[in-house]
Specification:
Elements lengths: L3 H5 L7 H24 L2 E4 L6 H8 L3 H8 L12 E4 L6 E5 L6 H8 L3 H8 L12 E5 L13 H8 L10 E6 L7 H10 L10 E5 L6 E6 L1 H4 L10 H6 E6 L10 H18 L6 E3 H4 L13 H6 L4
Parallel strand pairs: 5-8, 5-9, 6-8
Antiparallel strand pairs: 1-2, 3-4, 6-7
Length: 311
């Protein structure tokens, strides 16, 4: 094999174009190798009298991030010879699958993070409502701030004051109003005029900013407040078990606003967690009842939205 200096040195056997092409290829190869070396897992073996803080200082990371990365519940119980995985500076979150016997408090303690941070990052309103196999994200303390909620705290507070009937709600159905301008109270009057005793057919309405509501504002209907059946789909059995969310707008003509989608994501995550509804049971009116309706329109893609519901 030719020495590297002969490959890179300008030679009469190469044209000027070939010479620079060779140098470019060599540069790209170096970048590829070094990037993979940088991503390689770094492991530290605990030495006598070492503390987690001292080890963290040595590698330029926080002690809490090492604690979280290795699932250490008590940082004082290190022993000589223990191998610790050292997170890179970019490590900010750790995926975790809930196991039998876990509580959210014990998980937070094991990873050395605050219970409130875990709840905030995963949109969990009640720490008691976790189940075996549920996937959550552990925010590494000292590396990032917990992900801000997609819903305003005032709305979360109101939602938390309403206790869903245990085992009643099985699906979330997404609708559009099919009107570019509308509001929940007008829809309530229209539905009442159609003979619906409880008025507004949906449990929630998300505004597009038309009329007096702001873009992304959530209206909580009396059907949710009173845990009443919906009136948003044809079959009685569906209305008895499906939560109806309607977004104002005609999504056959244009897509929902970014704020509407963010609010829909936050609301669905809240309801999924509170009512234990898997993301496979988040659907649309059209998919539930094909051939009957185009709701919620061609510009609201369910597959792309459902991908946002991952923890």
């Amino acid at each position: 094999m030719y020495p590297l200096k002969f490959i890179l040195a300008k030679s009469d056997s190469f044209s000027k174009k070939e010479f620079w092409l060779m140098r470019l290829l060599y540069f790209l190869l170096c970048c590829f190798v070094f990037s993979h070396l940088a991503k390689a897992e770094l492991v530290h073996t605990v030495q006598k009298n070492e503390t987690l803080s001292a080890i963290a200082s040595k590698y330029g990371v926080s002690a809490n991030s090492i604690q979280a990365f290795n699932g250490i519940s008590n940082p004082n119980l290190l022993y000589v010879g223990k191998k610790l995985k050292i997170p890179s500076g970019a490590t900010s979150e750790i995926p975790y699958t809930v196991k039998k016997g876990d509580s959210l408090g014990s998980i937070a303690s094991r990873f050395g993070v605050k219970l409130s941070d875990v709840c905030s990052r995963n949109g969990i309103s009640s720490p008691n409502l976790i189940k075996v196999g549920q996937k959550i994200i552990i925010p590494v303390k000292g590396a990032i701030k917990p992900k801000s909620s997609l819903l305003p705290q005032s709305l979360i507070k109101t939602l938390s004051s309403i206790k869903p009937h245990a085992g009643k709600w099985k699906k979330i159905i997404i609708h559009h109003s099919a009107t570019p301008v509308d509001d929940a109270m007008n829809m309530h009057r229209v539905h009442k005029a159609r003979g619906m005793k409880n008025g507004l057919a949906y449990h929630f309405v998300i505004s597009n900013g038309s009329r007096k509501a702001y873009d992304g504002e959530v209206f909580i209907g009396t059907r949710w407040k009173g845990q009443l059946d919906g009136g948003h789909v044809k079959k009685l059995s569906w209305n008895q078990t499906c939560i109806g969310i309607c977004l104002i707008g005609n999504f056959e003509l244009k897509p929902p606003s970014t704020k509407q989608l963010n609010t829909l994501e936050g609301l669905c995550k809240y309801l999924m967690n509170r009512c234990r509804i898997p993301k496979s049971q988040v659907t649309t009116h059209k998919l539930l009842h094909p051939g009957h309706t185009a709701c919620p329109g061609k510009f609201l893609s369910l597959p792309s939205f459902v991908r946002r519901l991952n923890p």
